[in-house]
Design goal:
The protein has about 210 residues and is an alpha+beta fold. It is built from seven helices and nine strands. The termini are far apart.
């Protein structure tokens, strides 16, 4: 590509990223921008793709950013090709992506609530995390030491302030069979945590 072609591609990538902010249908966005992605993707056989975003020492930031975002969204849309449903659910809790969780979770009860109600509680918890400046969560393994002694799950911690949410996530044959808030949860790693976000109708931290 010439310098002019890089500039044009960079502009198209910038516009695609702006479009993503208002496009709710990710599969449509991926399809609409597939040709653009392929034009800036370098992928030797058997190797992961990289962005063709450097020309004669000039770095084209929007090409690089579009490439990484496109790869991420493509992975997320096809996540079950690489991960079990259980692993995918844990991934999207970390991303606080309620839409994908709604797609993935089976229509059963969670925390003795119908799926739609449980997702409302979970979305409220995500809003609490975000209100504290967290854009994503990371997770640490742990288990219940109370009523459901030994049942495993995760502490999900905010990436800004380490507020946390403790969930037991039961699974059977790679699929989630229940998720519930645990008030007696112990992480394998000792943590200095000040605030816990709970799954209830008021979502009061304590």
């Amino acid at each position: 590509m010439t310098a002019i072609e890089y500039q044009i591609a960079n502009k198209f990538c910038e516009e695609a990223l702006i479009e993503l902010k208002i496009e709710n249908d990710i599969p449509v966005w991926l399809k609409d921008n597939q040709s653009l992605f392929e034009s800036i993707n370098i992928q030797p056989i058997g190797m992961p793709g990289i962005a063709n975003c450097n020309y004669e020492g000039k770095w084209y930031e929007d090409i690089s950013l579009f490439h990484s975002v496109y790869m991420l969204k493509l992975f997320e849309e096809n996540i079950l090709e690489e991960k079990s449903q259980y692993e995918a659910v844990v991934y999207f809790i970390r991303q606080m992506n309620i839409v994908k969780l709604n797609e993935l979770l089976d229509p059963i009860t969670y925390q003795d609530e119908p799926k739609y109600k449980f997702l409302e509680l979970l979305e409220d918890a995500f809003c609490s995390f975000q209100g504290l400046g967290n854009s994503a969560l990371y997770n640490l393994e742990g288990k219940c030491v109370g009523c459901n002694d030994g049942c495993t799950g995760f502490s999900f911690l905010g990436n800004n302030d380490e507020s946390h949410m403790d969930l037991v996530i039961a699974e059977h044959n790679g699929r989630v069979s229940d998720i519930y808030d645990c008030s007696q949860f112990k992480c394998e790693k000792k943590l200095n945590i000040r605030k816990r976000i709970v799954l209830d109708k008021d979502n009061f931290p304590f």
